[in-house]
């Protein structure tokens, strides 16, 4: 059963993240939106030293073993759920800055989902010490996005190494992970083209490994404080034990690690969307209050004004998305399979934030459209939640497959 009573420690932590969002992120939000490729080092250093003391709250999800709802290594037992709470707060502050915070990120989520216990300890340990570091995950290629099984990047065994060749695009935190810190990029490559999905394996490529080159950092519509890189792998050699998990190509295995990573990260992306949506909703509420436009709850729908109806509609979408998100994260914490719920949360939250931020601009009129306030920025930041970690359409298809019990071959 879901328990909506959060532990006092979680509430205290959520409040702390809200303070960070309000006092540290909002004041620099516009600046790093406009100066897209500049780096907020003061903010990063503060967040890094905070994570060294408190544990990386927004460092990616963790998949416990089945039935292992208890606290491991002193970590809170609802780690994924609480990560969603902190993510919502930080993205209320600024989603682009949130994505730029030094931590293992999607690369860490892939290590957690696919690595052996020894690999998890080895690769994630570095994030507990030294200078700020980033992790990234590279699946998408020029000819492979939604159909992530169409990966063409290859990994060929050569003695004690794997040799990686291929091009990855749209890699979040790719530049910081590959070039500017002692981080890593988890690259998905095929070890056996003939084996299809089963041949696709994740490899940890350490920062500055010869043969890994960031060739471009994208200019984007939104989340402009986050770097999004194109990375080329040209005879890039990594030690054999950098392949996460087993090298064995099993007919039914391999690709399930990609899916396990998404099951863990989709609720976090949904929480990001909710944070941005709540920022817009809060702004509209404050603006209407300031201009003495009331929002009357509990009256007959026939008597509602158009603004009241719009506002309540926005609130309802946000709350529905939040409940789906918490459920998906809670299931992960309980060691339950959550693929359906993770896709539901992601699809609902992506659609909700797009709708809410567009409505906010619409309700506010010229002020909403101007750069004097952040609402237009939130509208731009919102759309990515409908694109990465599986687009709106792909998540709806996954939901349909799960409900109707179709395989990916039967419904695609
Ligand atoms: C800012 C940003 C950051 C990103 N970060 C990362 C990252 O860190 N790592 C990474 O690996 N990737 C990352 N991506 C890539 C992202 O995951 C892909 O862009 C996404 O999966 C869509 O793939 P695509 O771009 O190839 O689009 P396509 O797959 O070509 O899709 C184009 C359109 O067609 C629709 N479509 C495709 N197939 C179907 C279908 N079967 N049924 C119905 N509709 C369909 C899609 O929904 C979409 O609307 C990022 C992208 C962006 C923009």
Task: List descriptors.
single chain, 49% helix, Butyryl-CoA Dehydrogenase, subunit A, domain 3, Butyryl-CoA Dehydrogenase, subunit A, domain 2, globular, 412 residues, 3 domains, Butyryl-Coa Dehydrogenase, subunit A, domain 1
Can you describe this structure?
By secondary structure, this protein is of the alpha+beta class. The chain folds into three domains: 8-128, Acyl-CoA dehydrogenase/oxidase, N-terminal domain (Butyryl-Coa Dehydrogenase, subunit A, domain 1), CATH 1.10.540; 135-242, Butyryl-CoA Dehydrogenase, subunit A, domain 2; 256-404, Butyryl-CoA Dehydrogenase, subunit A, domain 3. Helices cover 49% and strands 13% of the residues. It has 13 helices and seven strands. It has helices spanning 8-34, 41-54, 79-93, 95-100, 105-114, 117-125, 174-178, 256-290, 306-333, 339-364, 366-369, 375-382, 392-404, and strands at 135-138, 154-158, 161-172, 184-190, 200-206, 212-217, 228-239. The strands form two sheets. The protein has a four-stranded antiparallel beta sheet with strand order 2-3-7-6. It has a three-stranded mixed beta sheet with strand order 1-4-5. Helix 1 packs parallel to helix 3 (79-93) and helix 9 (306-333) packs antiparallel against helix 10 (339-364). The longest helix is centred in the middle third of the chain and has 35 residues, at 256-290. It is globular, with a radius of gyration of 21 Å. Flavin-adenine dinucleotide is lined by residues 106, 136-140, 145-146, 170-172, 220, 228, 384, 387-388, 391, 393-394, 397, 412.
């Amino acid at each position: 059963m879901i328990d909506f009573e959060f532990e006092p420690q979680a509430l205290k932590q959520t409040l702390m993240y809200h303070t960070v969002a309000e006092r540290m992120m909002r004041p620099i939000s516009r600046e790093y939106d406009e100066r897209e490729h500049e780096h907020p080092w003061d903010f990063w250093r503060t967040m890094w030293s905070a994570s060294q003391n408190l544990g990386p709250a927004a460092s990616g999800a963790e998949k416990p073993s089945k039935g292992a709802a208890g606290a491991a290594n002193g970590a809170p037992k609802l780690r994924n759920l609480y990560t969603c709470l902190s993510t919502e707060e930080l993205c209320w502050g600024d989603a682009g800055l949130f994505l730029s915070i030094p931590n293992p990120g999607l690369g860490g989520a892939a290590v957690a989902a696919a690595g052996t216990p020894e690999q998890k300890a080895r690769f994630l340990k570095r994030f507990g010490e030294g200078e700020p570091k980033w992790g990234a995950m590279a699946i998408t290629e020029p000819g492979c996005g939604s159909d992530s099984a169409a990966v063409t990047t290859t990994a060929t065994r050569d003695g004690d190494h794997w040799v990686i060749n291929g091009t990855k695009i749209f890699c979040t935190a790719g530049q910081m992970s590959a070039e500017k810190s002692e981080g890593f990029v988890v690259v998905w490559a095929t070890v056996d083209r003939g084996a299809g999905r089963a041949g696709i394996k994740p490899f940890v490529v350490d920062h500055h490994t010869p043969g890994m080159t960031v060739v471009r950092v994208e200019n984007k519509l939104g989340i402009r404080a986050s770097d999004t890189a194109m990375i080329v792998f040209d005879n890039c050699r990594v030690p054999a034990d950098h392949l996460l998990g087993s090298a064995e190509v099993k007919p039914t295995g391999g690709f399930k690690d990609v899916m396990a990573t998404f099951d863990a990260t989709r609720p976090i992306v949904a929480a990001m969307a909710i944070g941005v949506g709540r920022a817009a909703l809060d702004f509209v509420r404050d603006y209407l209050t300031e201009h003495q436009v009331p929002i009357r709850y509990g009256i007959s729908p026939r008597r509602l004004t158009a603004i009241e109806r719009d506002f309540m509609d926005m609130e309802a979408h946000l709350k529905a998305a939040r409940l789906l998100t918490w459920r998906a994260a809670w299931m992960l914490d309980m060691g339950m399979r959550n693929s359906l719920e993770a896709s539901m949360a992601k699809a609902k939250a992506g659609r909700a934030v797009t709708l809410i931020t567009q409505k906010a601009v619409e309700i506010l009129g010229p002020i909403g459209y101007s750069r004097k306030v952040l609402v237009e920025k939130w509208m731009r930041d919102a759309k990515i939640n409908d694109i990465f970690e599986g687009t709106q359409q792909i998540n709806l298809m996954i939901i349909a497959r799960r409900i109707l019990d179709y395989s990916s071959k039967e419904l695609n």
